[in-house]
Write a structure and sequence with these properties.
single chain; transferase; LD_TPept_cat_dom; Transpep_catalytic_dom
Length: 563
């Protein structure tokens, strides 16, 4: 028993000794192995850099082939000696170093090519940065850094110099790319905001608009890359939230748009417009609405159906406006030529409704219709045509009305009722009777005789509001001194602006006569025929004391009706 135990221990000791010897022999010298590994890594990095700098596969193939062969080689096995293994790693280190030197020589001979390629990359990066700056992206320090890289490339002499330039260009390009990504996220959020507006989600639009404006401000105020990750995260959250809200709103919005288009189509026959084409498209929209939609499909659906809803409303509005304009022009044509004022002062005849003629304000509605691009534009043209027609009829009524100027006129009351001005303060000006009456809550307060615009510069008919109040002010002629309409700088004590273009109600201290027919050439008791012997330049003139009273007894909320 005892002898067997000693024998067993001896065997174990021998096995462990052999194992230790074998392990030590297989490991070789650690420093030698490390040198080989470092040389291999340097060669690998240089190959990668060479590819990045534009060296072709064919050019690098001889070195690449040897590199792959060296990496796939296996170290020798030696049981009792490290020398074969050390020799292997020494040889490996030398061969990696030799390949590294050969590759450096290859790169050195191709330095003009490397320089040219880096110059192209630099120019491409500079162009990218300029384009982004034009697009409104923050430029940060890109111009300075690109100038520094240009200078470094100009003085580059070694491969390391070129590699540093290349690394710097890659970093700038990456930062520009990150900026563009953030900008794209902002564009996506803006598109969703536009879609929410098109969908009519008014309450959510305010929330989304606030988020977009905040994100956009943060982007423009960003001073470096460090702030972009948090901003991108915030943008992603806003985009996801907007997508959810829009997805949930799709059924209700599509249903509302279909009803809106249906209602518009039903109105077309009354405006003498054929609805057939719109009815066919309505059937297609109904089919689309019955199927599932994602955000892009919903956006296309809204763009198309909103376009048709606009077209339907626009056709009806345009047709109604055409009819209203025709009605107005027909009314002027029928009345004007039969109601001329013969002026014995100069022997000429003038249209009493000169303000409504095409040479003056008669084409206002036509011009608005021709320039209309939105429904609001078309509605404005229609409203203008209807106002011109109604006010011309008021003028026709007042022309035949013998009521004294200082009493309530039936045409005034019709104007107040029609324009819903029975409450509040209203100035009513009759062009054919050259009179002005001030009403408060439908009750006559005071009346005045006035002088309005001459035939060449008549006063504008319509319903106006006070645009400005000046006391005192100086009027300057818009005509050149050679024009018969020119006048010197004139001090005005009280002026109420009621229409763009300098149309005021104001005092005219140079006149002596006011009232009927003073808008035409006439003799004025002031003796100043040049300034006083004709109507104004479009303004409404009053004696100084009456203009002052009107100025101080009216305000910014006073409405003004001219017919």
């Amino acid at each position: 028993m005892f002898r067997h135990s000693r024998l067993g221990r001896l065997v174990v000791v021998l096995v462990l000794s052999v194992s230790l010897l074998a392990t030590g022999a297989c490991a070789g010298d650690a420093q030698v192995r490390r040198q080989a590994m470092e040389n291999e890594q340097r060669l690998s990095q240089l190959l990668h850099s060479a590819r990045q700098l534009g060296f072709s596969t064919a050019t690098l193939r001889p070195i690449q082939t040897q590199y792959v062969s060296l990496r796939s080689s296996q170290p020798p096995f030696s049981l009792f000696s490290n020398q074969p293994l050390n020799d292997y790693y020494l040889s490996l280190a030398r061969r990696y170093l030799l390949l590294h030197t050969q590759l450096q020589d290859l790169i050195a001979t191709a330095s003009p090519h490397v320089h040219a390629r880096l110059q192209q990359e630099l120019q491409a990066t500079r162009t990218m940065q300029v384009d982004d700056k034009k697009a409104g992206l923050p430029a940060w320090t890109f111009p300075n850094r690109l100038s520094q890289l240009q200078d470094a490339l100009l003085h580059a002499q070694s491969f390391n110099d070129y590699e540093q330039v290349h690394t710097g260009l890659l970093q700038v390009a990456q930062e520009i790319h990150t900026l563009e990504m953030t900008s794209n996220h902002l564009s996506t959020l803006h598109n969703l905001l536009t879609l929410a507006q098109q969908a009519g989600l008014k309450t959510y639009v305010l929330t989304l608009q606030s988020a977009y404006q905040t994100d956009q401000q943060r982007f423009q105020q960003a001073t470096g890359m460090a702030s972009l990750p948090a901003l991108n995260g915030l943008l992603d959250a806003h985009i996801q939230q907007a997508t959810v809200v829009l997805t949930q709103a799709m059924p209700a919005v599509t249903s509302l748009r279909l009803r809106e288009l249906t209602g518009g189509i039903q109105q077309l026959p009354a405006s003498h417009v054929d609805p057939t084409a719109y009815q066919e498209r309505l059937a297609l929209y109904q089919k689309q609405a019955a199927s599932a939609m994602d955000i892009p499909r919903f956006q296309r659906f809204l763009q198309q159906i909103n376009g048709d809803i606009f077209a339907v409303k626009a056709e009806a509005l345009r047709e109604d406006t055409d009819q209203a304009i025709h009605q107005f022009h027909q009314d002027v044509d029928d009345w004007s030529s039969g109601h001329l004022y013969y002026d014995s002062y100069d022997g000429n005849s003038y249209a009493v409704d000169v303000s409504y003629l095409n040479s003056n304000f008669g084409l206002d509605a036509d011009n608005l219709l021709n320039q209309a691009t939105t429904l609001d534009d078309l509605q404005s043209a229609l409203d203008t045509a209807r106002t011109l027609f109604f006010n011309h009829q008021l003028m026709e009524m007042d022309y035949d009305d013998p009521t004294p100027y200082d009493q309530v006129h039936a045409s005034d009351m019709q104007a107040l009722h029609h324009y819903q001005l029975m409450q509040g303060q209203v100035i009513v000006i009759s062009l054919c009777k050259q009179s002005l009456r001030l009403y408060q809550d439908g009750q006559l307060v005071r009346s005045f005789l006035v002088t309005t615009g001459r035939p060449e510069r008549p006063s504008p008919p319509g319903v106006w509001t006070v645009l400005n109040r000046l006391s005192p002010t100086i009027f300057k002629s818009s005509d050149p001194p050679t024009s018969p309409l020119w006048y010197p700088k004139t001090v005005i004590q009280h002026a109420i602006l009621f229409h763009d273009g300098g149309y005021f109600i104001h005092d005219s201290w140079w006149r002596a006569n006011y009232g009927p027919d003073t808008e035409f050439p006439h003799y004025d008791d002031s003796g100043d025929e040049h300034s006083s012997g004709n109507g104004s330049h479009g303004c409404v003139n009053l004696p100084p004391d009456e203009a002052a009273w009107l100025y101080y007894n009216t305000g910014w909320n006073t409405s003004i009706v001219v017919y």
